[in-house]
C-alpha cells in the first residue's frame, strides 16, 4: 500500500506505506515523520516502544479479557483502539482527533476490526471533554504532543485534573511525553500531573509513575516517557509486572525516585 492525503488543516501530507518487514503491517507518517504502526493481521502486536508500554499498563487495568471503557485523545492510526479490541473484545471506546481528514484517511485505508465499538469526535482534546461529562473511563490515553512545542492548554495541571476527574475509581490516565535532553518538559509534566492529583481531595490516594527505557532517566537521550496516573496508590505489583514485560531495559519510577527525577 502507498496512500497519501493532504491534511489541509496543518498543510502536511499523511501517508500510509507498508512497513517493509511484516505482511499486512503499515506505517502512518505525517509530514515525512513516522507517527504510528499498525499490524492489521495481529493488532495485539505493538511495534513502537512507548505504545507497547502503554499497552502493558492497559493489560493491568482490569482482569485479562475484560472490556474497558477507554478514551483516546489523539487518534493517529488508532493502534491502541485496535489493541484493546483484540485483547479486550467489546471494549467501549472513544477517540478525539483534531484533524478530520486524518481520521477519514486512516479509516478509509486501515479499517477497524469487525465489532470495534468506537465513538469518534473531531475537535480539540480539551474543548471536547464537555461531551463526556457524567461518564467515567477505565483508561484515558493522551498521545498528542512532544516537547515544549506542545499546545500550552494541554500541558497543565488544570487539564490533567479534568482528565483525572473522568477516571473511574480504578481507572488509569496514560500520557505520552516526547522530549529532548535535558528533558525539562518531561520533568515539568510529571510535576503538573502530580499537582493535578493534589486537587479534589485526592492528596492521600492518587499516584504517578513514569515508564521508559532505563537510560531515558539519565536525561541524556531524546525519546518518550509514559506517565501513568491513578486515583489510588500505584501498586508495587504493577511495577514488577511492567519491568518484566519490557520493552527492555525497562524502568518504572515512583515515589522518591520519581520526585528526584522530576525535580
Q: What is the CATH homology-level superfamily?
A: Vaccinia Virus protein VP39
What structural category arises from helix and sheet content? alpha/beta
Please tell me the total number of domains. 1
Helix proportion = 25-40%
Average pLDDT reading: 94
Strand content: 25-35%
If strands are numbered along the chain, what order do they take across the biggest sheet? Answer: 7-6-5-8-9-11-10-12
Question: Secondary structure elements and their pairing?
Answer:
Layout: E1 2-7, E2 12-18, E3 25-30, E4 33-39, H1 49-60, E5 69-73, H2 79-87, E6 92-97, H3 100-109, E7 117-122, E8 137-142, H4 157-165, E9 167-179, H5 184-197, E10 207-213, E11 223-230, H6 236-245, E12 250-253, H7 255-262
Parallel strand pairs: 5-6, 5-8, 6-7, 8-9
Antiparallel strand pairs: 1-2, 2-3, 3-4, 9-11, 10-11, 10-12
Helix pairs in contact: 1-2, 4-5, 5-7
What brief labels describe this structure?
Rossmann fold; alpha/beta; 263 residues; 4-stranded antiparallel sheet; 8-stranded mixed sheet; 12 strands
Amino acid at each position: 500500500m502507498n496512500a497519501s492525503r493532504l491534511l489541509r488543516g496543518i498543510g502536511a501530507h499523511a501517508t500510509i506505506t507498508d512497513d517493509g518487514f511484516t505482511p499486512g503491517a503499515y506505517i502512518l507518517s505525517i509530514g515525512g515523520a513516522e507517527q504510528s504502526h499498525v499490524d492489521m493481521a495481529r493488532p495485539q502486536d505493538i511495534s513502537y516502544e512507548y505504545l507497547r508500554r502503554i499497552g502493558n499498563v492497559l493489560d493491568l487495568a482490569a482482569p485479562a479479557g475484560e472490556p474497558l471503557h477507554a478514551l483516546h485523545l489523539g487518534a493517529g492510526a488508532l493502534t491502541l483502539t485496535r489493541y484493546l479490541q483484540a485483547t479486550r473484545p467489546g471494549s467501549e471506546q472513544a477517540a478525539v482527533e483534531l484533524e478530520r481528514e486524518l481520521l477519514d484517511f486512516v479509516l478509509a485505508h486501515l479499517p477497524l476490526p469487525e465489532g470495534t465499538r468506537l465513538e469518534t469526535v473531531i475537535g480539540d482534546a480539551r474543548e471536547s471533554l464537555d461531551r463526556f461529562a457524567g461518564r467515567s473511563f477505565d483508561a484515558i490515553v493522551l498521545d498528542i504532543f512532544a516537547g515544549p512545542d506542545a499546545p500550552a492548554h494541554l500541558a497543565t495541571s488544570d487539564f490533567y485534573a479534568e482528565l483525572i476527574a473522568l477516571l473511574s475509581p480504578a481507572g488509569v490516565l496514560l500520557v505520552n511525553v516526547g522530549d529532548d535532553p535535558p528533558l525539562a518538559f518531561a520533568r515539568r509534566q510529571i510535576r503538573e500531573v502530580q499537582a493535578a492529583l493534589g486537587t479534589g481531595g485526592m492528596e492521600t490516594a492518587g499516584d504517578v509513575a513514569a515508564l521508559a527505557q532505563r537510560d531515558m532517566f539519565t536525561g541524556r537521550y531524546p525519546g518518550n516517557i509514559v506517565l501513568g496516573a491513578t486515583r489510588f496508590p500505584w501498586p508495587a505489583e504493577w511495577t514488577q509486572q511492567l519491568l518484566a514485560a519490557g520493552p527492555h531495559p525497562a524502568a518504572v519510577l515512583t515515589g522518591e525516585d520519581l520526585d528526584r527525577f522530576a525535580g
